[in-house]
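hiii so my PI (J.) wants the whole complex modelled not just the main chain, which honestly fair. so below is everything: two entries, each one labled with what it is. i double checked the lines twice but i was tired so who knows lol
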Amino acid sequence: MGLTIAEKILAEKSGTEAKAGKLVVADIDVIMAHDSLGPMALEALTEMGEVSLPRPKKICFMTDHLVPTPARNYAQMQKQMNEFAHRWGIRLYGAGEGICHQLLVEKEVRPGQVVIGTDSHTCMAGALNALATGVGSTDAAAAMATGQLWFKVPETIKIILLGHLPRGVFAKDIILFIIGKLTEDGANYQAVEFTGETISSLSMASRFTMCNMGIEMGAKAAIMEVDEITRQWLRQRGDQEEIQSVKADADANYSQILEISVNKLEPQIAKPHQVDNVVPLKEVAGTPIHEVVIGTCTNGRLEDLELAASILEGKHIARGMKLIVIPASRQVLLEAMAKGILAKLIEAGGMVLPPGCGPCVGVHGGIPADGENVLSTANRNFKGRMGNPQANIFLGSPAAAAAAALEGKIVDPRKYLA
Amino acid sequence: MELKGRAHKFGDHINTDYIMSSRHRTQTLDYRELAKHLLADIRPGFYESVQPGDFIVAGKNFGCGSSREYAPKIIKAGGIAAVLAKTFARIFYRNAINLGLPLIECDTDQINEGDLLTINLKQGEVFNETNGKKIFINPMPEFMVSLLDEGGLASFIRKYKKFKL
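here's the output for the full assembly
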């Protein structure tokens, strides 16, 4: 019997036969901790009595959840992370450099690695053919202290995507559609492999959007194979090493194999207050929208901002609309500036926040008022997610978001896309 | 280990934002203070209704969403002795066990709001004293039982210095 990608990576990194269901202890290649949950990992390290970190080069600290700091508490937490990183020679990405998941794929992660991060959306890095998964602070601390972590080798759901996306329909629509089908816990404890001709036609940015939301169906990891587009991404960021893809065997054992054709897919929207509450956009067309968020780790890359700008260019957002734009990293911000994309978004009435999590952590940067509806390109719409349990959050593509910003209601973005 | 307390019943997909919205961390990082907001967005006044040793009893996928470990931490700080659910989301499951908070996977349809429960972890059984039903606990991987026995992952690593399955 053959092996899935997750089984192969965990076998390699644990030195055992890692079949689904087995517990293994694997070497960790990248340990990421961010400003929100990292400080608790430092507390756990103290509890472990740990005074030496065996491999500080495998650790990176990211400053993204609360930038610039909205309260003294968070400033203290960031200071603590910075000082710890300095003391141990840990790579520190400071405030404004970018969202942890974007920095992981721009700077840190390579195919075949095991990656953990103190954030559930760490699964995004699976688009680079890594086994990347979110953990809590104590697990991250244990990995810092020992270089390893235990895993139950997951079963895998294989999702084969066939066909080509129609005009005005995007990777975000695909992943929302899949989450709607599989539901919020449809992949709990399991890995997901995305494959098929549709994936081959998608940019890395679009692939990141899909893998980012794997956790929204409970997935432990969301993994893609390496192709020319992946290689190009790695080469562009200066990766000189040999690039090998971990491929699933043809006779690998899957818990489920799904085939989905995207040829007739329509724009999708996740309604409040669950991510799997997905409907075709037309079913909620006309719903008033008071705030729009374009960006975040889910959809804050250059192609996302460019798409939104193509809809908003030369127009102005609806009266009273709050349009918040959040590039996923400094690199994206600079490129969007150089290409004139930011100017178009700002001229249309948008506010640009520094690269970071923004209002998606519910603390700052665009907390909605009671009774307001938000259309966001982020990944979660739980009640209270954006800091006010009396607001409603809808999720959609950057195109759907930009169109809603223009009209002040949910509208089919395809009419703006020639 | 035997635990005895009252059930507070919740539905499916109770996510980490519902357990506590991160907005409260602007005011304080003290877990006892934060515990006052436990599940308050979906059940105002919940914290005040908890007697130390009570249980949260939920449907499926409890703890879905974020990897924020302060979710199980404030459940503990709020006086909850264990969480019972049909299933748990993966990251929450690890976090809770790592902190020494017992999680009981069982058929929670046999439990109603306010029922008095006795949980015997070693025998793998919940006894519902209110309706007289015995509920089987789905066994947890042995390694996780050993983590709980050691009082959580930090104590485990302090003692053994590495993972051993």
